[in-house]
Structures are given as structure tokens and as C-alpha cells.
């Protein structure tokens, strides 16, 4: 149950990271093309958000840098959520391999611990079974 919630939050992180990459990339592209070619339409849209007195080159640069940073954050989110998933899987494998081997054999006469099939001594208390 706890693990399911954990997995869901990882998925959310992955999705958010992916959205950030896309948005950041878009902002970067807009900023880039804005620096190259400032069309009337673009200026019209951008002055809806940014005051017209701002130097438009700076706005383009800010879009580029901001978009780049947002995309990097999104990328890091994706990577961290994926690597956490791998680590969780490795830990799961570890727990499975570290689980004590199932020993089937006769029980000790003294402590009822398991005694190896071809062993004369108890593995728990060490007493002879003969
Ligand atoms: Zn014993």
C-alpha cells in the first residue's frame, strides 16, 4: 500500500518533469526565434505579458535562459524519478537474495531449531543430535 503511493508520486514526478521539459523547450524556441526575427505578431503577444518599455532582446534572452533552466529542471526530475525507481528495484532484488535460505531438515531435540540434513549438530544451539 505504501509502496503504491510511492510509485504514484514517482509517476507524478516523471509527468511533471516531462511537462517542464516540453514547456521549457517551447519557451526556449520562442525566445530563440524572437531574437532572430522579431515579428509584429510576436511583439504583440509578448507585450501582453511584458511592458513594451522592456528591451525586446532582453525578453528573448530571458525566455531562452528561463526555458533552458525549466527544461533542465524537468530533465533532472525525470532522471531522479527514473533512478529512484531503479534503486528501489535493486533494493528489492537485494532483499530477495539476502533472505535466509530455506533449510529443510530435522528439528533440534533441545531448541527445536533446524538441523542440517547431514549435520550432527544443531545450527542454533550447537548441541549434538546423536
Ligand atoms: Zn538446537
Multimerization state: single chain
- The span between the termini is 48 Å
Helix content: 55-70%
Proportion of strand residues: under 5%
Low-confidence stretches: none
Q: Please, how many domains? A: 2
The secondary-structure element order is HHH
Describe this structure in words.
- The protein is mostly helical and 130 residues long.
- It folds into two domains: 2-98; 101-130, no CATH class.
- Helices cover 68% and strands 0% of the residues.
- The protein has helices at residues 2-36, 40-49, 56-98.
- Helix 1 packs antiparallel against helix 3 (56-98).
- The longest helix has 43 residues, at 56-98.
- It is rod-shaped.
- The relative contact order is 0.12.
- The mean pLDDT is 79.
- It binds zinc ion.
- Zinc ion binds next to loops.
Descriptive labels:
130 residues; single chain; binds zinc ion; mainly alpha
List the SSEs and their pairings.
Layout: H1 2-36, H2 40-49, H3 56-98
Helix pairs in contact: 1-3
Summarize the structure.
68% of the residues lie in helices and 0% in strands.
